[in-house]
Amino acid sequence: MSAALWVFALLQAFVFVVAAPLFAGWVKWVKCRMQNRRPPPVIQPYRDLRRLFAKGKVLAHGASPVFRAAPYLVFGTTVIAASVIPLIALALPTAGIADAIVLVGLFALGRFFLALAGLDIGTSFGGMGSSREMMVAALAEPAMLMVIFTLAMVASSTNLSTVIGAVLDQGFALRPSLLFALLALLLVGIAETGRVPVDNPATHLELTMIHEAMILEYSGRPLALMEWASQLKLLIYAVLVSNLFFPWGIARSLEPLPLLTAAALLAVKLAALGALLAVGESLVAKMRLFRVPVFLAVAFTLALVGMLSFVMLESLL
Amino acid sequence: MNIPTPEWLSAAAVLTAVASGLVALAADRRPRVLRHVAFPLLTLSGLACVGAAGLALLGGQSFSAELPFGLPWLHWHLRLDPLAGFFLGIIGLVTALVSLYGPSYTRVYQQSAYSLGALGLFTGLFVAGMQLVVLAADAFAFLVAWEVMSVASYFLVAYEHHQAANRRAAFLYLLMAQIGAVLILLCFGIFSGFSGGFTFDDYRSITLTPFWASLAFALGLAGFGMKAGLVPVHVWLPEAHPVAPSHISALMSGVMLKVAVYGFLRLLFDLLDAPIWQWGVVLLAVGSITAIYGVLYALIHTDLKRVLAYSSVENIGIVFLCLGLAVTYLSNGAPAAGVLGLVAALYHCLNHALFKSLLFLGAGAVIERSHEHDLEAMGGLIRRMPWTGLFFLIGCISISALPPFNGFVSEWLTFQTALQATRLESGVLRAIVPIVAAVLALTGALAAACFVRVYGIAFLGQARSRHVRRAREVKSGMLTAQGLLAGLCLLLGVLPTTVVGALGAVTESLVGRAPAAATRQGWLWLTPISPEIASYSAPLVMLGVLIALAAWLGIWGWLRRRRGQPLIVRRDPWDCGFGGLTARMQYTATAFAMPFQQVFRPVWRIGEQHLREMDPLLPTRPQQLEHHLEIEDRAWRWLYAPVGHWVLTAARRVARIQTGHVRHYLVYSFLTLVLLLWLIT
C-alpha cells in the first residue's frame, strides 16, 4: 500500500508538471478573448517549449557555471515544490517531506539562483531584473509566510495535507482569518508569479520588466526550462489557492471515482481561477515599480490581520 | 586510562593554545615557525576541544576541577558540562579549520611591517581565553578569562596599526569590551552579595527576589549583549571585525560572539532560577530589532567584510529572538515549545559559527588576491577563483536560510516554535509572538537579497578593477578549510535530526527536558512536536535532488549519444545595439540596493551627493558624473555621540580643579587627609 502511495504521489507530481503550460495557455487564451484579439490555441505553450527544446544554445561570452546551472536548479526546485503539494488526493507520503515553510524555502532557493543568473552576464538589464525581483520577493515572502502561519494555526499544522483536511472538516464556516489569508495569498501570488499589476509577463520593455529581464540572455533548452518553471509556479499558486481555501471535492482515498471527481472539480476551479486572473489582468494597468511595496504591504497587512484575528478571536472559541 | 578523559582533553586544549602563542614569538626571526609549529599546535588544540565536547555531549561525561591559581582563598574552578561542551565544540571546530587556513594566509604579512610573532601570540592567547571562559566555574576565573579574550582580540584588531582607522576601531572595541566587562562584574556582584561566595555553585544555590533577579538579568543582557553585538550597543562590531586579519575576523564573528551568547545562556538558564515572562518579551524585542537592523545595514554597505559583520549582528539578533521565544514559553507553562526554542537558538549558534567563518575566510581569500575591500571594485571572481567561488556560494546559500543547507533548519525550527503561540495563555503574548515571526520572515528574505547582492556583484559579472581581473586562486590549505566548512554546512542541513538529538543533552542539563518528540521518527524525519503537526525530511529532499540529477544526466547522455555534441554558440550579450558592453555598465552594489533604499529609507542616515557636469556644447552629454553615498549608523548619533559628549563635558568639569598651582594641590591633599581622619575616627 505504501509503495502504491509513493507511486501515486510521483504520478500526481508528473501530471502537475505536465499540466502547467496548459494553464498558462488557458490564461493567455481568455485574456486574448477579453481584449478582442484572436487567441492562439490553448496548447500553444507546449509548441513553444518543443521548439525551444529542439534549438541549440547561444551562450554569452563570459557566462559562468552559475548561469548554466541556474535553469536546472530553478526548474528542479519548482518541480520538488510541485511534488509536495496535494493536487487531487490527500494523505500522500510526499506531503510529509516538506511542509508549507519548506515550500517557501524551495521557492526562495529557485529565486536565489534566478537572481544570480541575472547578474552573471554583466548586462544592466539582468542586474536591474535581479535587484527588482529580490525587492519584490523580500516583501512578498513575509506576507506568504504570514498566510501560511494563519493556516497553520487554524489547522495546528504546517503539513499541507493536514491543513487541507482541517479546512475540509470545518465545512463552509466563514472564518475571518481565512478570508483575510485568501485575499493576502491572491496578492502574494500575483507578485510572486510576476503578473499584472506587479510585472507583465508579455513585456520586453526595458524599464518595466522584472522576470523577463533576468532571463533575457537565455536561449534554447535553458530558456525552455525557465519558461516552464515560471508556468509551473503560476499553476502551483493557483492550486494552492483552490486547494487550501476551496478544497471541496479533493479525494481522501485512492478509489477511482473520488479521484475522477476531484480531478474534474479541480479542473473547473482552476479554469475559473485562470479566467479570473485574465479578467483582472485586462482590467488593471501595470503599477509603477515603487508602488509595488505598497501593494505588498497591503498583502502583508491583510495576512497579519488574518493571523491576529485568529489569535485574538477564534482560538479562544 | 586508554580513553582520554574530558579533563585531560580540555587541559591539553588550553595548554596547546597557550603553547602555540608562545612558540609563535619566535616567528619574527623565523617566519616558518608560525606556519609549521604554531598553527598545527592550534589545530591540535581545536581537535582536543572537539574531543572534549564530544565526550561531554554524547557520553554525558563532565568534570569539575580546582586549579591552584588565582586568589589565595579562591582557587580557579573549572567545570565541563553539556552547555560548556557544546560551546567548546564550536570553538574547537572553527579554531581547527581556521588554523588550516592560517599558514597560507599569513604569508601576506611576512613582508609587511607588522610582527608575525605578535599575531601568533595573541591568536593563541585569544583562543585559550575563549576556551577558559566556557570552562570557568567561578566568577573570578570567568572574568580573568573574559579579559584575556578581550584584550588579546584587541591587539588582533589593532594588528594593522599603521592605519589610523584601525587604531580607532580597536580603541572603540576595547572601550566597549571594558564597559561590558564592568556590567558583567556588577551582575556577578549581585549574586556574590546574596550568596557570599564566588563560585557558580554558590550562585546556583540561592534564589534571588524577582527585583534582584531582573536587575542581574538586565546587567547580564547589557554586558553580554555588548560583546555579542545587540542593537544599539553593536556599533563597535562592524568597525572592529572588518579591520582584523580575515582568519581572526572568522574567529571573532564565528566564535567570540558565541562565547558571549554562552555567557548569557549560563546566566539565564543556569545561574538564575526560573525565567520571568517579561524577560522573554524584552529578549523578543531586542532580538527582532537587532535582526532587522543588522540585515538592513548589511544590505546597503559595500565593504565586503563590513557587510559580513552587520550580518553577524543580524544573526545574533535571531539567536536572541529564539531565546526570547524559549523564555516566553518556559515561563508560561509550555515547556515543550520552550525547549524547541532553545534548540533553535543553539542550532543557530552552531550554524552561524560555520557559515560566517566560511564567508570570512572566503572574503579573506578574495581580499588577499585582489587587494580590494569594496564590492564596487570586484566582479567576475568566480572565473578567476572557481573553488573559492563555489565555497562562498555555499556559505551565501546557508546564511540566506535556503534548503537543504543548515541555516534553513534553524530558521524552520524557529518558525515551528513561533507557531506554538496558541499554547500561551496571555492574549498579548499570543499577538506578540506571531509579529516576531513576521519580523523573522522579513529578515530572512532580506538576508537572501543581501547575499544575492554580495555574491552577484563580487563573483559574477565582469571584473571592475585591474587587480580583480588578475586575481588567482588561493593555495590548497586555504581552500581545504573553506571546503570543510562548506561540507559541514551541507551536512548539518541534511542531517538535522541527529544534530537536534545531540543538542538534547544541553537542553536536558539546562531546563531538564530534551526535545524528545523531534527525534522520535528516526534520523530521516525531523518532527518538532509530532509528525501530524509538522515534519521536514532534509535527507529525502536531498535524495530527490540527487535522483533528479541522475535522471537528468541519464537523459543528457542518451541524447548526446543520439545527436552527438550539442550545438553551443558563444556570442556577445545583448548591448541594445550601442556596441560593446564594459564593466562600468554593470549594475553596481549600490544600484542593486537602491530599491531597498527607497522602501526602507528612514532606517539609515544616508548622505547622498550627485555631481553632474554637462558638456557646454552639447547639454545632453555628461562630462563628469559622480555619486557619493555615505551611510552612518543611526545608533551612533542616538546613543554613542550623546554619551561621548556627556563624558567629555563631565571630564572637563572635573578637570577644572586641576589648576596647575602647587598650593591648590596642597590644599586638596590637606582636605583629603582631614576627611580621611574624620572618617576613621
Unreliable stretches of chain A? none
| Mean pLDDT over the residues of chain A | 90
Helical/strand content category of chain B: mainly alpha
Q: How many strand segments of chain B?
A: 5
**DSSP helix count of chain B?**
24
Relative helix content of chain B: 55-70%
CA radius of gyration of chain A is 19 Å
Notable traits:
heterodimer; A: 317 residues; mainly alpha; 12 helices; 71% helix; globular; B: 681 residues; 24 helices; 5 strands
What report would you give on this structure?
The complex is a heterodimer of chains A (317) and B (681). The N and C termini of chain A lie far apart (39 Å). By secondary structure, chain A is mostly helical. Chain A is globular, with a radius of gyration of 19 Å. The mean pLDDT of chain A is 90. By secondary structure, chain B is mainly alpha-helical. Helix content of chain B is 69%, strand content 6%. Chain B is built from 24 helices and 5 strands. A two-stranded antiparallel sheet of chain B has the order 1-2. In chain B, strands 4-5 form a two-stranded antiparallel ribbon. In chain B, a hairpin with a 2-residue loop joins strand 1 and strand 2. The mean pLDDT of chain B is 90. Chains A and B meet through strand 1, helix 3, helix 5, helix 6 and helix 12 of A and helix 15, helix 16, helix 17, helix 21 and strand 3 of B.
List the helices and strands and how they pair.
The complex is a heterodimer of chains A (317) and B (681).
Chain A: H1 2-34, H2 44-54, E1 57-60, H3 65-83, H4 94-97, H5 100-120, H6 124-155, H7 160-169, H8 176-192, H9 211-214, H10 220-245, H11 256-283, H12 292-312
Chain B: H1 6-23, H2 31-58, E1 63-71, E2 74-80, H3 82-105, H4 116-135, H5 139-157, H6 164-195, H7 200-205, H8 210-228, H9 236-243, H10 246-271, H11 277-300, H12 304-330, H13 335-370, H14 381-384, H15 386-399, H16 406-418, H17 427-459, H18 466-469, H19 476-494, H20 496-511, H21 538-563, E3 568-571, H22 589-599, E4 605-614, E5 622-632, H23 634-655, H24 662-680
Antiparallel strand pairs in B: 1-2, 4-5
Helix pairs in contact in B: 1-2, 1-4, 2-3, 2-4, 3-4, 3-10, 3-13, 3-19, 4-5, 4-10, 5-6, 6-8, 6-9, 8-10, 9-12, 10-12, 10-13, 11-12, 11-17, 12-13, 12-17, 13-15, 13-16, 13-19, 13-20, 15-17, 15-19, 16-17, 16-19
